[in-house]
Every structure is written in structure tokens, then in C-alpha cells.
Amino acid sequence: MARRKADPFKKAKREGWLPRIKTAADRKAVEDGCYYDRDAGKRAVKFIEEFLRHSKGRWAGEPFILQKWQREDIILPLFGWLRPDGTRRFRKAYIEIPKKNGKTTLAAALSILMLCGDGEPGAEVYNAAKSREQASMCFDEAAEMVKKSTVLGKRLQIIDSRKHITYETTSSKYAALSADAGVAEGKNIHFCSFDELHIQKTREMWDTLVDGGISRTQPLHMAITTAGVWDPDSIGWEQHTYAKSILDGHDDWSYFAYISAADPDDDWTDPAVWAKANPSLGVTVFEEGLAEEAAQCKSAPGMLNTFLRRRLNIWTQQTDRWLDMVKWDECPSDARLEHFESALNYGGLDLAAVSDLTAFALQNQGEDGEINATTWFWLPEAQAMQSSPSPNRELYRRWADEGHLILTDGEVVDYDYVRKKINEIHEEYGIDELGVDPWNAKQLLTQLGEGDGLPCVEVRMGAKTLSDPMKNMLKRILTGTWRHDGNPVLRWNYDNLAAKEDVNENIQPMKMANASKIDGAVAHIIAFSRLQVNVDDTSIYSERGVLVV
């Protein structure tokens, strides 16, 4: 007679922790001899709530009482699940939540717990991030928690200048690390929290930190992050995908996964979706603020990706439409040349390839705080008059007839004509600084600068140079503090404009898929980049409740 196979879940049923078995990985863990120890989980909760204090805001100085999701979904399973040998089950953890849900505070609390509340002699605890500034945020939070704790403040030593906290009783230390400082080698890591992993471009820092815990009995390496820009080669996307596989049924029981997010096809304007994604809704993030941001995104598609990532924890593509043209049409369209008389004027030139559209923008800030912007366009006449069918030919002809577009003789753009016109504008109205994309414009840039005496500045294309101007221009347009000249060529260019975003949420202009020209919009961005550098009062939008991104 065959012997009945022992029930691996009998202990869970008898001790009442069967509800802790939620995933295929949990079931496999129990089958392999892992178990849940209520007391181990409760000890971690007790340490945090008894010894730690909030450092700022309305709860400053108050005990750190964990929210239900922090206690039940993070702390208790992380510290309550044990291996057959009594060490912790989990060696890696991935926690992904929207911004403003207490991510940094939770990481700081866990760092202090692992420093002096985990019973590890000579524990090395680190908070890592891509930049020193980001890494310092979690450390500073932890340091303030320690200072406000009457118990820990007496036992831990804080060295702010070095971003170190030490616990001499067990010869343990906690420090901040940054990828840009290159200081991850040679560590013997008991616990590491990697903040905003989605920003990290390469896997080198992550892999080095994981390797640094190999000689510890129960190391824990944790990524705690918000969703990012989708990049199949990034370490953030790799860990997100693996964590998602754990939640979807993969049985690696050594990897802890927690993701709180809306689904990509959810209605991002629905308050129920906001609640689904934000576990701290009503505590640290509020429906009123989310409603205001969502309303702005309806008019500014360029803000939507940021909202989806930061507020709903949805990974997004790199590009999206930059502007709802309804908002462009609502801006004043009566900018005239008289607005540029006796003013500080800033120009932007996007010079075409030999047979393409060239645009020059002139901008200033008026006495009312609004930006005045007007634009000139040039195109080789052959492009508008060609006999073969062209998707833009009829548009060019009509705009030329209406005076919105200047046709120059020949097959290629007449740079001499463009140079002459810019000099005429300078003589009539004054150009205090002229920004020029140097690509394909070295000769004209030299002629305008050295030959004609115009104050020219190279403005190179890319997120580093154009992200901030683009974001601030968008705020201007949304608040109606952008006065343009109603040029239909310019409107067409803005309608074709998308924003390409990098992992650091910096943006740069690019064409929408299957779209055409954006030269006028780029000329505007270049001009505004120079205006923004030189004019102090470019922040009227901040007084009108516009989302700061």
C-alpha cells in the first residue's frame, strides 16, 4: 500500500497563516520547507513603530505608525517568511509604487531597522541611487528619524558630512552610495536599498551591490522605485519584468515583488483608478491634487506620460504628442511687430537642410508678463511649385500666397536671403541674443556673428539643452501667457511636435509618427531657451496653479 504524501501546508493550516500563501512562489516555498513566523514579522513592525519618528510634515516627531499596506504587504511578509534554516526567505525585493506614497520614508525606516534592529554583527547598510543627490534624500530622511528618536538618538552616531550613520554596539554602519561616484566595489552588504532604479541606465551598480552580499547569511537587496520610461535594455525594466512574472505565477520564492499600479488600459481620469494605484491615497497623496493634474493632462498630452508614471505607476513609451492644439488656439494670437519695439528680444533659428523649411522666431517678455512670439518661414520655391504630387505642396502654395511663408529662388534654401532678413529685423527691432542650432549652420552662424556683429549663441539639439525650455513653454501655453502671431505654418509645426523623453524625464523635440515639419516649433524652443536664460521673470505660470514637472 502506497504511503500517503505528507501535506506541506498542514503547518500553515494549523498555525493560521494559510492566507499568507498567495502566489505560486509562496506555494513552492512551502513545498520546499519555508514557513511564516508571525513573531519574526511582528518584531520588525514593532521596531519601526516603537523607535522611529516621522521627520517632517504634519506628523513630525510622531511615532512612525505603518499604514496597512506597508505593514501587511511589505514588512510582515519580508521579515515573517523564513527558510527551513531559519534565515529570511527573501534575498531580493522589488517594490514599485507611485510618487508621494511614502517610498523614501519606508526605505529609510528599513535601512535603520537593518542597521541596528536585525541582530547582524558588523552590518553594512547602504542606500544607493544613480546620483548623490538622490541617494542623499533617503539618507537625510533616515538621519532625521534617528535625531527625533529619544532611544536611537542616543545609540547611533550621525556623520552628516560623510552621509554615514554608525552603530558602535555591533560595529555596523549605514551610508549613501551613488552610481556617479563609482564607490560600490568592496562592500560586504547586509542590506541595500536602491532608490529609483528606473533612472539607472546600466546594470553595473546593481550587479556590484548584489555581489557585495554574497558572504552574508541573509542579505537583502531591495529596489524601491516608481515606473519609468520603457527601455528593454535597462536594469529597471528588467527587474520590473521579473517582479511582474513573480506576481503572475513564476515560482522563484527568493524574490519579493510588490507593484501597486493602474493597468495601461485603465481610464486615467477615473478616481477609482487613482485609488487602485496609490496605496497611500488620502494619507500622503490626495484626490484633489490628482484631479488637478489629470485635468491639465487633457490639454497637454506632453504631461500625460509623466502623470501616468508618477501618479499611476505605468511604464510609458519615450514619445507622445506634446500639445493639445485646442490650448494653442486658446492663446492670444495677436502678436505684432510693434510688440518688439524698444524691448529685449531673443531669436531662434532652425536652419533647414538644402531643400527644406527654415524658421526664425523672435520673442520677448511683455510688460504684462506674457511672452510675445512671432515667426518667419522660408522655403525654396521649387518645393512649392514642383509638378509631381507632394503631401505639402498645396499647403506651401496657399501659405505663400497668404504671406505666411517666403519662397526663395531655386532648388535650395537661399541662406543669403535668410541672413539679409535677420539683419533687417535686427536693425529695425534689435536682437539681443540669437540662438542657432549649429547643425548645418556653421557658415551662416559665422557670418551673422563675426561678419554682422549679431550676438549669436549655439543651442545644440538634445534633452540637456531643450528639456527645461520645452517644459516651461508648455506651462505658458496652458495658462494662456503665450502670445503668438497666428501663423498657420507655425500651428502646423506645433501639431506635428512630439516630446521624446529619457529615463531622467528630460525631453527633447521630435516629429510625431508619420508627421511632417516641426521647424517653427524648434525655432520657438531655441528662442525661448535664450529668453529664459536672460530674463528673470519668466515664472508667471507658477502663480496660476500649473503642474510643475
Radius of gyration: 29 Å
CATH fold descriptor of the largest domain: Rossmann fold
- CATH level 4 superfamily of the largest domain: P-loop containing nucleotide triphosphate hydrolases
Strand order of the largest sheet: 5-6-7-4-8-9-3-10
Per CATH, the architecture of the largest domain is: 3-Layer(aba) Sandwich
The rough form would be described as elongated
CATH class of the largest domain: Alpha Beta
Q: Regarding quaternary structure, how should these chains be classified?
A: single chain
Distance between the termini: 70 Å
How would you characterize this protein structure?
This protein has 549 residues and is an alpha/beta fold. It has 20 helices and 20 strands. The chain has helices at 10-15, 24-31, 38-51, 68-80, 103-116, 132-148, 152-155, 204-211, 235-247, 271-277, 287-299, 301-312, 325-330, 381-385, 393-401, 415-429, 442-451, 463-478, 488-495, 519-534, and strands spanning 35-36, 81-82, 92-96, 124-129, 157-159, 164-167, 172-178, 191-195, 220-225, 255-259, 319-321, 346-350, 358-365, 371-380, 406-408, 433-436, 456-458, 482-483, 497-501, 507-511. The strands form four sheets. The chain has an eight-stranded mixed beta sheet, sandwiched between helices. Strands 12, 13, 14, 15, 16, 17 and 18 form a seven-stranded mixed beta sheet that branches. A three-stranded antiparallel beta sheet has the order 11-19-20. Strand 6 and strand 7 form a beta hairpin. Helix 5 packs across helix 6 (132-148), helix 11 runs antiparallel to helix 12 and helix 18 packs across helix 20. The longest helix has 17 residues, at 132-148. The protein is elongated and about 90 Å long. Mean pLDDT is 89; it is low at 539-549.
